Amino acid sequence: MKRRRQIDNQHFAKRRKLDPKWNKLQSFRKKLPVYAAKNKLQDEIKQHRNLVIIGETGSERSKQMEGLVASYQLSDDEDEQPQIEVKDIQQNEPLNNSYALTTGVNLAPEMDQLEEKQLLVGSTTTYISVNPTYDQMYKPVKGANAPWLGASVAPGQRNIVTGFVQDHYMNDSMFDHQHNAYFTNGFAESPDGMSMVGDVNHERPKKKPRKRKRKRGEPRDLVNDPRDPKKDPSNVDGFMGTWRPYSGPVGAEKVGERSEEEVVPAIPQPVEPKESGANDEEDTEVPEAKKKKLHDFNAHSVFHGERGYDYMGRTWVDPSSHLKAGRPHENFKPKKRVHTWAGHSKGISAIRFFPDYGHLLLSSSMDKTVKIWETDGQRKCMQTYHAHKKAVKDICFSNDGRQFLSCGYDKYTRLWDTETGQCIGEYTGHKFPYCVKFNPSRQHNFLVGQRNKKIIQWDTRSGKITQTYDRHLGAVNTITFVEEDRKFVTTSDDKSIIVWDFGVPVEHKYISEPTMFSMPSVSLSPNGKWLLCQSLDNQILVYGCKDRFRLNRKKKFSGHLTAGHGCEVISSPDGRMVISGSHAGEVYFWNWKTCQIMGKIKAHSDVVIGCQFHPIESSKLATASWDGTIKYWD
């Protein structure tokens, strides 16, 4: 038997050396009873945690728990199972034993239980990995504010210095209504619509009743007297109105009483029919005194040249023989100033090159005059047109340059002969004109955008209004013809763009977005496919003329400051550059393809309101400013 055991031990020893996994398996089998004892102890400790020890002091209770923990912390090398005795408590056994336990009774003092889960998020945290409940999201912030923080909003949650401002959109009519209500009643509705702003109990001061003026020949008793209750309209019970008894002087004729001679009824005068397309304001008759006041201005011109013809019989308006129009050429950014015209005494409002040739430059100013300058040779002023009684707003050449239009703040639009300086026609809509434009295909028709939100179409042959376009909600700023002059595009102070069919007073397309700004300057690209719009949010937007006038979101030109000023935006004749002025007196150049700034020039000391590229010269540019000067660059 002993021999058998020795053989087995030797066999097991060899196997341990050869197979270490078998050795681990044998040691694990020995520890199985210990693991079972540990599991049993864990169950017993869980049961004892729900019990409360009665009749023991704190030291005895701690000793008993230490014994349980000591029995749990057994060494893994022990082979024997721990022996733990748990005494069962009988119902009839007294409670004076030191180890007596009971269930269902909780004699521990009450304590504030903490929440199971607390969501702690920092003030600058922008992302959390759990889904918080509604109560956790809108739970008030606890704790005192730091003494160095002046506002109750955390620094990470501010978007301004003093706190947090939330964007809110409100249309103009609602804003005006609430604004007027606040200053009239003392309170108004808040933008969120949940509360009121101001003193709701504010009482409006009572206005004194206004006395009606007595008409000539009317008895004094007929005038409302607030001291008499029968004559005071505010007295609901005592006011009698026209039914009160007559209380005038004796012998006077009563109201409504006729004399013996019957009154002959007045014969109504025939009313002349209104002109087609004309609005009520243009058709109303102007008093003779007002007509004389409007026509007392004598529009004339002064010629500053030596002679009106050269040795070949050509007038000073005719271009030189070396200028060839229509040749394609590449344009470049100018580098230096070559000339300055300083003939105007006030700021310039607009400049225009002579069509196709550019040998003359027309300019309008706030000094009530229009001047035309030479761009070649001596570069002097050739003629001054005393065009208007007030400042001139806009000018426009005809296709051949022999005539031009001017509109001013005297509410007149005048047609001029460029060569002779004679005023050919005067047109007025009795409202301030803001822009004027010839129809390129029909030179006898021109459009005038007015301050009263309307576009008026005039015929120079008859001198009458042939059509009125009324859709805008603000003053009309620009007029641009597109699609072979069959349509035209207008912009207004109401932050909208409207496409019209020429001759049809119904809009073809209405473009208006909440994010749009007013566009005081619009120009057409040389290929006729794009509209360059100067937006008052300091950027140039591009709209397509061939794809239903959609916004090209890939083409935006920014980097300049024009907010509050109607700086002109143009494109170079080859279409490779976009040029615009700025309120700081600078001229910016952008690349059309990349939309990147190619460079800028410090041109003037004030706002650069106008800029025009020469139609033939490759790098010559004219700029106009509110400082009263026009500069020529090359």
Structure description:
- By secondary structure, this protein is α+β, with helices and mostly antiparallel strands.
- The protein is 14% helix and 27% strand.
- The strands form nine sheets. A five-stranded antiparallel beta sheet has the order 5-10-9-8-7, with no helix packed on it.
- Strand 3 and strand 4 (196-198) form a beta hairpin.
- Helix 1 (2-18) packs across helix 2 (20-49).
- The model is unreliable at 51-58, 75-103 and 250-286 (pLDDT under 50).
Strand and helix layout:
Elements lengths: L1 H17 L1 H30 L2 E2 L4 H15 L28 E2 L31 H4 L34 H14 L1 E3 L6 E3 L81 H4 L4 H7 L5 E4 L33 E5 L6 E6 L6 E6 L3 E6 L6 E6 L5 E6 L5 E6 L3 E6 L5 E6 L4 E6 L6 E6 L3 E6 L4 E7 L5 E7 L4 E6 L4 E5 L5 E5 L9 E4 L5 E6 L3 E6 L6 E8 L10 E3 L5 E5 L4 E6 L5 E6 L5 E6 L7 E5 L4 E4 L1
Antiparallel strand pairs: 1-2, 3-4, 5-10, 6-33, 7-8, 8-9, 9-10, 11-12, 12-13, 13-14, 15-16, 16-17, 17-18, 19-20, 20-21, 21-22, 23-24, 24-25, 25-26, 27-28, 28-29, 29-30, 31-32, 32-33
Helix pairs in contact: 1-2
